[in-house]
Specification:
Blueprint lengths: L16 E4 L4 H27 L13 H4 L12 E5 L5 H8 L3 E6 L2 H10 L5 E3 L12 E7 L9 H11 E12 L27 E4 L5 E5 L4 H10 L3 E6 L16 H4 L5 E7 L2
Parallel strand pairs: 2-3, 2-5, 3-4, 5-6
Antiparallel strand pairs: 1-7, 6-10, 7-8, 9-10
Helix pairs in contact: 1-4
Length: about 280
C-alpha cells in the first residue's frame, strides 16, 4: 500500500466516557461521521493490509466474495450498477469494478473517502448518509455493505427502505454486521470475552460521549429477530443468513475478533436480501 496521508497531529482530547443510553438518528449520524473522520487514518493503517486495495471481504473472519458469491456469480456482475454503502476506502468497489461492474462507493466519512482517492482506481465516490441516499429510484441492480452504516444507525428500517427505493426490481442487497449474539459478551479477544456480561435483549445503544455529554461514537444493537423484521419492514425478502466460521488460516486478532472466540461463537452475520 502507498503511505497513509500525513497531516499535523491535533491535540489529543480527553478519553470519552463509555455508557449506555438512547441516541436518536441525528445524534448517531453526527457522532459517527466525526468518529470515522478522526479515526480513518488509524483504521486504514491497522486494517489496510488485511482489507487490501481491491479485495471484497465481508468481515474479520476473512470471508471473501470471490468464494462466497453472495452477490451472485462473478461473471454475472459484468455491466451491473452496484451501490456500496459504508464503503470506507472503497476496497470492495474496486474488486467489483475488476469484475466489470459499475460500482459507486458511498460513505458518511469524508476522511475515509480521501483514503479511497489516495488508493485510486477511478471508482465514483459519494459522501452521504445512508438514510438519505442521493440517487433516483431504481438506479442500481445490486447493493452491498460490509460492516457499513447498519451497525451505527438508530433507524435501520429507514436505511433499508432507501436501499429498496434505489434498487431495481429483482435487485439484491447483501449486508454484514457484527453478529447480534456478540452484544452479550465483552468486546475482548481473549478468554474474558467468552463469558456473558450483558443481556442479549437490551437494545440500549452503546455510546461514547465527551465531557459535555455529546456523543462521539454510537453503536446500535439489534437481535437476530429484529434484523429479520427490519429486512421485511424495509420491503425485502430474506433469502439467506450467513454466519461465517473462523478459518484456520486466519490467525489475526481484530478488536474483539480472534481465533479463540471465532471458533466458539459467531462474529459476523450476513443478510442476503432480494427486492421483488
Amino acid at each position: 500500500m502507498e503511505p497513509i496521508i500525513q497531516e499535523s497531529e491535533p491535540t489529543e482530547p480527553p478519553e470519552p466516557e463509555a455508557t449506555r443510553r438512547d441516541a436518536d438518528v441525528t445524534e448517531s449520524s453526527r457522532a459517527n461521521r466525526g468518529w470515522w473522520d478522526r479515526n480513518a487514518d488509524e483504521y486504514q493503517i491497522e486494517h489496510g493490509t488485511f482489507l487490501g486495495d481491491d479485495r471484497f471481504v465481508w468481515g474479520p473472519e476473512g470471508l471473501d466474495e470471490v468464494e462466497a458469491e453472495l452477490l451472485g456469480p462473478p461473471e454475472d456482475l459484468k455491466g451491473k450498477d452496484v451501490l456500496e454503502i459504508g464503503a470506507g476506502a472503497a476496497q470492495c468497489s474496486r474488486w467489483l469494478a475488476s469484475q466489470g461492474a459499475r460500482p459507486v462507493a458511498l460513505d458518511l466519512s469524508h476522511r475515509q473517502l480521501q483514503h479511497a482517492l489516495r488508493i485510486g482506481g477511478g471508482v465514483p465516490l459519494v459522501q452521504a448518509d445512508a438514510g438519505v441516499l442521493p440517487f433516483r429510484d431504481g438506479s442500481f441492480d445490486l447493493a452491498c455493505s460490509a460492516y457499513g452504516a447498519l451497525p451505527f444507525v438508530a433507524d435501520p428500517v429507514l436505511v433499508l427502505k432507501e436501499v429498496h427505493r434505489v434498487l431495481r426490481p429483482g435487485g439484491r442487497f447483501v449486508f454484514s454486521v457484527t453478529h447480534p449474539v456478540r452484544w452479550a459478551f465483552p468486546d475482548e479477544p481473549g478468554p474474558e470475552g467468552l463469558s456473558v456480561s450483558a443481556s442479549y435483549f437490551d437494545r440500549t445503544p452503546y455510546v461514547e460521549q465527551d465531557e459535555d455529554g455529546n456523543a462521539v461514537y454510537v453503536e446500535h444493537h439489534r437481535t437476530v429477530g429484529d434484523r429479520v423484521r427490519d429486512v421485511v419492514a424495509g420491503g425485502f425478502r430474506l433469502v439467506d443468513l450467513v454466519e461465517p466460521q473462523w478459518p484456520a488460516w486466519n490467525t489475526q486478532e481484530w478488536g474483539g475478533w480472534s481465533p479463540l472466540r471465532g471458533n466458539l461463537i459467531p462474529g459476523t452475520a450476513i443478510f442476503v436480501c432480494v427486492r421483488d
